[in-house]
Amino acid sequence: MSKIAVFPGSFDPITVGHVDLVERALPLFDKIIVAVGVNNQKKTLYSLEKRLHWLEEVFQKDPKVEVGHFTGLTAHYAHSIGAGYLLRGLRNASDFDYEKTISQLNHIVGEGLETIFLISQPAYSHISSTIVREIIKGGGNAEPFLPVEVFRSMNGNS
Ligand code: ADP
User: Fold this and answer.
1) pLDDT digit string, tens, across residues 43-61
2) Residue 82 burial (CB < 10 Å; 0-12/13-18/19+)?
């Protein structure tokens, strides 16, 4: 049976931290679906179309990575596409506290759905989409935190 993982998130926008996590997880799975969870209550900086477009661009060279999006429960989405695993990253203790509860809930709601955690590399553990959005809104240079395709596109070069 093929091992399929969903990497759910807002990806508003995708950062080099997310990309590193997916690349490190690739040897563990046959396929990774990087999926934008759509929450209409939550205001995002970038549109769903833009976030999906960037994910497609960033992962187009990885044949084992697909891009998707969903509304509703992550566990239901995983089930609907035959994924037995969720992939999440842990940067610090507050990620752990939050993720622990969610993964326990997903294990119940997802009837055995397992969450696989990778600890972020030290070089990426300070990077979050929230910080990147603040830098962008403040007119700073977010280039060090963004995949090159995304940085170029934000600056009108693609
Ligand atoms: P959410 O909307 O769930 O916060 P994010 O897009 O911020 O989604 O993050 C999705 C996942 O990526 C989470 O598991 C988060 O811990 C992980 N992640 C985000 N940034 C990094 C990073 N710099 N290094 C490792 N994992 C990360």
Assistant:
1) 999 999 999 999 999 999 9
2) exposed
